[in-house]
Design brief:
Elements lengths: L6 H15 L28 E9 L8 E9 L9 E5 L17 H8 L2 E5 L18 H17 L3 E3 L10 E3 L7 E6 L1 H7 L1 H5 L4 E5 L34 E2 L5 H8 L7 H7 L8 E2 L10 H6 L7 E6 L7 H14 L4 E6 L12 H14 L34 H17 L2 E2 L8 H10 L3 E10 L7 E5 L5 E2 L4 E9 L3
Parallel strand pairs: 3-4, 3-7, 7-8, 8-11, 11-12, 14-17
Antiparallel strand pairs: 1-2, 1-5, 2-4, 5-6, 9-10, 13-16, 15-17
């Protein structure tokens, strides 16, 4: 956003923003060493990562017909049920591919090489997760609810592993043997908007990471930095027309690069892949409904059990540093949570296409480890996979100021309102697969409880044959529902 501003001047701007915001502690932005891309001929540090195609089921909005979501799971072979699972949520005009541009330059593989379970997925209506309903219903609140259903399947291990790179009905699948109760969600760009309100609404993840997106800000004067001159309208490339209800976010390579890339820190061959017009992803046109919960209200409901990490590129065209600091201060003053933030040097909006990517990987690994969510490393290895940069270790965040009585009252009121709005209305589960039952429970505000099995005749194995409580019972939000799954009867 500020290609002509030096680091020293940028620090002065932050100091101005801090004074305006009446910060309780001085704002510090680490001046971190620039990470280097692997040299040609070097073996990729992610060579031992295993990649599998995984499939999820969600019920979008008020749909009664499920939608299958395509995904990828990355592991290093050492993971257990205690290993944190990081669920990656892509942005607009994006897909799972944005997390895995090439084997040696990949968010997903670098995190998995460190020892996390990593899951990326195509959101409904994007890339390999086609949506049969009205694309206008694929707005941020519904995408957040879809993510909740997916998170439940990750936590309980009720998603499927496909035998080939497809989630088509004809492809054989098996239920995963890995449940990951400690789930972390990480969203980039519009995906960052999806995860931004998630902890305050569902409270079922162990941490949240938001990358390259803005949000609610504390009140402050306008930025003292003048807006940069608009970039010339790029010459369009021959991009195929989008189907009804969808749009092409970019009209060509130059538009993509102008939006996503800061040239000083770019990894050019990754940029070439990311902004290849033949690979552009169409996006659903789905404005957020006027009556949807506001992000500010959801942030206020976060609580102190879910740590938050906010990250940005220091040259992001849609998230200027001045606004980012005001957004960070809003979190500090309103979430009642452990919140940290970081800036990546010489980095534009698409951080995974810049040389600072290994820095982001190390920062996230350190931050999660310090919060009791360490990766599981394979025998004889370290939590490596990225260059070691000691300066990347984040320090403790500034604690939020004690809330006033009025703030506490408002926060209590927002929780009361949420409790009145949200409940678990137990859905009818009989006849569903465990994956579909988990999704339907999530869509209804419930959670999966104990699982029993029974040998029966005349019933399809793997289907729900009994549930408790029964369908249509109203319980508290997040209430657990016990299910019994049919097993094949002995011959």
């Amino acid at each position: 956003m500020f290609p002509s501003i030096s680091g020293a001047r940028r620090m002065r701007v932050l100091a101005v923003g801090c004074a305006i915001a009446l910060c309780a502690a001085a704002v510090t932005v680490p001046m971190l060493a620039r990470a280097q891309a692997p040299q040609p001929g070097e073996p990729p540090p992610t060579a031992g990562v295993q990649v599998q195609t995984v499939c999820f089921t969600v019920f979008n909005g008020t749909d009664t017909t499920p939608t299958t979501l395509y995904g990828k799971r990355y592991t290093n072979g050492a993971q257990t049920s205690q290993t944190p699972a990081i669920v990656l949520v892509h942005g607009i005009a994006s897909s799972t591919a944005n997390w895995d541009f090439r084997p040696d330059w990949s968010v997903a593989r670098m995190l998995a090489a460190r020892g996390f379970v990593v899951i990326s997925y195509d959101r409904p209506g994007f890339a390999r997760s086609p949506y049969a309903g009205d694309p206008a219903t694929l707005h941020t609140p519904n995408q957040r609810a879809d993510l909740h259903q997916l998170v439940l399947q990750v936590r309980h291990g009720t998603y499927s592993v496909a035998s080939s790179d497809s989630c088509a009905p004809s492809v054989p699948k098996s239920q995963t043997a890995l449940a990951s109760p400690r789930a972390v969600i990480a969203g980039h760009s519009q995906g960052g908007s999806v995860v931004q309100g998630y902890p305050g609404l569902y409270h079922d993840v162990s941490a949240m990471i938001q990358a390259d997106i803005g949000g609610p800000m504390i009140t402050a004067p306008p930025s003292p930095i003048p807006s940069p001159a608009p970039t010339p309208t790029p010459v369009p490339d021959p991009v195929p027309p989008a189907p009804p209800g969808y749009s092409n976010f970019f009209n060509g390579r130059q538009a993509c690069e102008n939006f996503n890339i800061y040239w000083r820190g770019a990894v050019q061959d990754v940029v070439d892949v990311a902004c290849d017009p033949t690979q552009f992803i169409v996006s659903p046109v789905a404005p957020t409904p006027a009556d949807a919960p506001a992000a500010a209200d959801l942030i206020r409901q976060t609580g102190n059990s879910i740590p938050i990490l906010l990250s940005w590129g220091d040259h992001d065209v849609i998230a200027p540093i001045y606004n980012d600091e005001l957004h960070y201060q809003f979190w500090l003053q309103n979430c009642g949570c452990d919140v940290s933030r970081m800036y990546l040097p010489e980095t534009g909006h698409l951080f995974m296409a810049h040389t600072s990517l290994p820095l982001w990987i190390q920062w996230v690994t350190t931050w999660l480890t310090e919060r009791g969510l360490p990766p599981t490393t394979a025998a004889g290895t370290s939590a490596g996979g990225a260059p070691s940069m000691a300066a990347a270790a984040p320090g403790p965040s500034s604690p939020p100021a004690p809330p006033s009585g009025a703030t506490l009252a408002a926060r209590a009121g927002s929780h009361t309102g949420r409790a009145a709005r949200k409940a678990c209305v137990v859905p009818h589960l009989k006849g569903l697969t465990l994956r579909a039952a988990t999704a339907k429970l999530g869509a209804a505000g419930c959670d999966l409880g104990r699982r029993h099995t029974a040998r029966v005749t005349g019933r399809r194995a793997g289907r729900v044959i009994a549930q408790s409580p029964r369908a249509h019972v109203r319980k508290r939000f997040g209430a657990k529902v016990t299910v019994t799954i049919a097993r094949r009867a002995r011959a």
